[in-house]
Amino acid sequence: MNYLLDANILIHCIRKSISLPKNSFISIITVGELKSFALRNRWGYLKQSNLETLLKSFPILEIDGDLVDTYAIVDTFSQGLLINDPLPTGMSARNMGKNDIWIAATALYFDMELYTQDNDFDHLTHIGLKLNKSFI
């Protein structure tokens, strides 16, 4: 099994020493989120250096044309508008952050388990997203 690491997991990894699965990957979207987080929070040289080292230790998955189709499915499903796969009874439509849609789409497209502490992905298990929120 391969794993996609969400930004919150990597931030936790920088703050505390935790081991992550060897078959882990990062979305290019997560790289942008992390660099933005570091700038907004005025990380110093040491933390930014640790971030760069961490980013170099995992393969980074880029966005390509095929992934765009999966993005459209995730976004449309979340809005409750996917005709062939409607939201389950009792589940309401939701607006996901665009970065979260890209991250979920990446995990689905590459058939990876998403390591996250974010509840915004929970509804996507209905369309096959594998989540792991218990490893920290």
Strand-helix topology:
Blueprint: E1 3-5, H1 7-15, E2 24-27, H2 28-40, H3 45-56, E3 60-61, H4 65-78, H5 98-109, E4 113-115, E5 130-132
Parallel strand pairs: 1-2, 1-4, 2-3, 4-5
Helix pairs in contact: 2-3, 4-5
Report on this model:
This protein is α/β, with parallel strands linked by helices. The protein has one domain (3-132): 5'-nuclease (Rossmann fold, 3-Layer(aba) Sandwich). The chain is 44% helix and 11% strand. It is built from 5 helices and 5 strands, in the order βαβααβααββ. It has helices at residues 7-15, 28-40, 45-56, 65-78, 98-109; strands at 3-5, 24-27, 60-61, 113-115, 130-132. It has a 5-stranded parallel beta sheet. Helix 1 links the parallel strand 1 (3-5) and strand 2. The mean pLDDT is 93.
